[in-house]
Amino acid sequence: MSAVGLPLWLLAELTYRCPLQCPYCSNPLEYAQIKHELSTEQWCNVFEQARAMGAAQLGFSGGEPLVRQDLDVLIEHAHQLGFYTNLITSGIGLTEDKIARFKHAGLDHIQISFQASDPVVNDALAGSKHAFQHKLEMAKLVKKYDYSMVLNFVIHRHNIEQIAEMIELSIALGADSVELAVCQFYGWAKLNRQGLLPTQDQLRLAEEITQQYRDKLQQENSACKLIFVVPDYYETRPKPCMDGWGKVFLTIAPDGMALPCHAARQLPIQFPYVQKQTLQQIWYQSTGFNYFRGDAWMPEPCQSCDEKEKDYGGCRCQAFMLTGKAENTDPVCSKSVHHEVILEAQQQAENQITIEQLTARNSRNSKSFISVINVQ
Ligand code: SF4
Ligand code: SF4
Question: What residues does [4Fe-4S] cluster bind to (predicted)?
């Protein structure tokens, strides 16, 4: 038990409800069937337990966390417990009054996501006519109230050529850092991958442009940081997913399911609920959290590989989604016998698929997806 780390990073997915419809959303495809949400008291209890176990950072996420009417109560409670708190939002539902109230409640940090640097592409991807304008106004207000602000752009084939404009916009809005994160292919992004994965040439150019801006910002002594996150589909080694299974990250889903990562719900593993077990029991003793700790579970080639301490065999969700078995080597690794599925996905990045052809993340599509699963 002593070898198990502390759950330093708590992600509270307060709800799966969201007014937007991003086709790359990482929420589960069948989110519409999950209607129950933890109450204010239950969330506060989770925060208390996590803090007592050593958790220091708390992200409020979703769905769109702003649809929870008790958000300022949750922020205040987390702040009083001593958490560093971060609101991860689309900005839709934010108002000046809320920004001021959250500040008063002790919120440290706000991350606003944009779908693109121009209103047409942004609003087409978000499935909402006035989303871009509202995000702009909210980002200005977030800085007016002196928050630390991250602007997040999920990058894919339909907006990657706007990278310079995204950076310019972020600088103009006074962002402290900018996350240019190429889609990670889970949930709805996996469903739409053929229409989202950029080509290698697009990626190379986007990274070059980002580096030029980094150099320029450094010359100007700007404190704005540019973070470019690449998809591992163009790598030959996988990422050390979540810095290791059940090592640092603890996610609580809206209905109280505890997960080692927000995508793990799809795995054929029974994960515990905070309504039924304490966080202490969940973190240290539950089958779900111990499932991929250590390396005894690893098959070859990972088991005898001298890189297994670096990447832990990659992402279990990716292995499950792309090979059908969560124990398999992540197929991103060139040593995996399934690596050809990654090469096929790279070729599909040349396909012509429009924004309109992507499947929007909304409850109608989610429900139809559930019925497909049930019929099969
Ligand atoms: S990615 Fe888009 S649809 Fe998904 S929760 Fe965030 S804003 Fe909503
Ligand atoms: S074989 Fe397994 S441990 Fe080795 S590099 Fe590939 S994924 Fe990592």
Answer: 18, 22, 25
